[in-house]
Write a structure and sequence with these properties.
The chain is mainly beta. The chain has one domain. 8% of the residues lie in helices and 51% in strands. The strands form two sheets. The chain has a seven-stranded mixed beta sheet with strand order 5-6-7-1-4-8-9, covered by helices on one side. Strands 2-3 form a two-stranded antiparallel sheet. The longest helix is centred in the last third of the chain and has 9 residues, at 89-97. The protein is elongated, with a radius of gyration of 15 Å.
Length: 114
């Protein structure tokens, strides 16, 4: 039996060089999470490592930090963290541009700038 599960992933902050600028810019991701609904056979447990897809070709791993039933959504939500300490700019941009992922601010709802 499959279950619909919402994945909430914490992505590390990163430093990027913007076109035309000499200095590095920091993109702080501590106040946002990336969300996606997936179908799973079993609800993941603390410490489980999941392989997530980005668009049609990319993947990354994330570690489950908690799984809870969310009454208003009528589904489990798994909070996860990106498995590496850093994220490459290209991988981050692919995640931001992916139509199968949503970005939400922790306190204010959907993130307005990315």
């Amino acid at each position: 039996m499959t279950h619909t599960l919402e994945i909430s992933v914490r992505i590390p902050s990163l430093r990027v060089r913007r076109d035309g600028k000499e200095d590095l810019e920091t993109i702080v991701n501590s106040d946002v999470r990336f969300f996606k609904n997936v179908e799973v056979e079993a609800i993941p447990k603390l410490g489980d490592v999941l392989t997530m897809t980005v668009g049609s070709s990319g993947t990354f791993k994330c570690e489950v930090t908690r799984s809870d039933w969310h009454h208003e959504k009528h589904m489990f939500v798994a909070a996860c963290r990106y498995s590496k300490r850093t994220i490459a700019q290209a991988e981050y941009q692919a995640l931001v541009d992916a139509t199968d992922w949503q970005v939400r601010g922790l306190l204010l709802g959907p993130a307005t700038t990315r």
